[in-house]
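re the bet — no i am not wrong, look at it urself. input seq straight from the record:
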Amino acid sequence: MAEGILRSKTENLGITVDSAGTSNYHEGENPDPRAVLAMRKKGINIGNLVGRQFEVADFDRFDLIYAMDDKNYQNIVALAPTPAHAAKVKLILNELYPSSNRIVPDPFFGGPEGFEEVFTLLDEATDKILEKLKNGN
């Protein structure tokens, strides 16, 4: 969802946006149909996205790497080849709530309202990210 939201906001800015999991559970799969539906209601199509696993080369491909929760944050940082690479990794909700280390709730086991809540959080967080990118931060 975060990838789709941020892509929709940066499509004309020449910014590369991608997402990856820290495990291979959903590698090669499309997003959860409930996420696709929640996003479609907001005018964003994520149905064609395909899951992939995070890889060490991503540290060199991307300037910023956002994790949704602390476990994924720790898994990504553990792969960092250098402290400079590790410094690229941030918890996405720290953009909304600085230094709070809040996690994006996992809507997988809930109903559609969980996906709506996640959309709202990620929409607000990506607004902050976009604002920082436009200001050169």
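see?? The longest strand covers residues 65-67. told u. also The helical segments are 2-10, 33-41, 58-61, 70-79, 83-86, 112-134. so pay up
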